Amino acid sequence: xxxxxxxxxxxxxxxxxxxxxxxxxxxxxxxxxxxxxxxxxxxxxxxxxxxxxxxxxxxxxxxxxxxxxxxxxxxxxxxxxxxxxxxxxxxxxxxxxxxxxxxxxxxxxxxxxxxxxxxxxxxxxxxxxxxxxxxxxxxxxxxxxxxxxxxxxxxxxxxxxxxxxxxxxxxxxxxxxxxxxxxxxxxxxxxxxxxxxxxxxxxxxxxxxxxxxxxxxxxxxxxxxxxxxxxxxxxxxxxxxxxxxxxxxxxxxxxxxxxxxxxxxxxxxxxxxxxxxxxxxxxxxxxxxxxxxxxxxxxxxxxxxxxxxxxxxxxxxxxxxxxxxxxxxxxxxxxx
Length: 336
Description:
alpha/beta, 6-stranded parallel sheet, 12 strands, 16% strand
């Protein structure tokens, strides 16, 4: 198949667009990638069998998709956030242009209805679009890129790290993470904390970076002894992906996560432990002091993560595109 790409520019597009289509390209499919600046190669779309549309929506996009559908091109539409429950923090509201969550979701649903097949990262998101009238919504989670170089980086002390987009700011206070780390640093003089994205209220033995280039994140994780994935139990968080756990595990970093959404079914066989509400100090304290447990979890996580690469599920993407193309053919036959 020849597949075009219309994508929102974001780090998550690596998991939803680049990794799946890279894997399909390795299987012999022809991918019409965006231009170097990320703009779509619209002029090449008419030569495609199908178009992958990641999160793009709005009247201009719908008009384009209607024209492409009319010319016999299959549409596969993908979304990876529960837009009905976006956090209500100031930064998220600014990125949303002031529109309400429901208005944003309704706008994307109108676009998704033009797809022959839709894809979502989790069942709550898929169910929301099915409820809005989008037919054939399939769940394909985020998976790791194949062949990413990952090597532990020697360092002093014990480093606890958290890769946390700004939407995680609302998780910090209810889970008492600042208080937890202050107490742990008193109990463990060799404890260092690193966060990427969200900033904690810590004054010593703490490093924060508001942003790290996506391709550099494995190198950052290489310096962690424990990786965190704390989540408040909210509808938005229950619809999340488990890719953070997969990234930690693949890097040989034992993880601790809230038993929420995609993390709830994971555990030591995936290289980490779940932390009940109110138990972050207790569970972190125990793992910080147990180097043997960290080594065991690191190896278990690496073993588990080998089966979590995109190549393990690329056939599901191939099937989705083939089904979408098949529906175009069925419609053409029916109208003949």
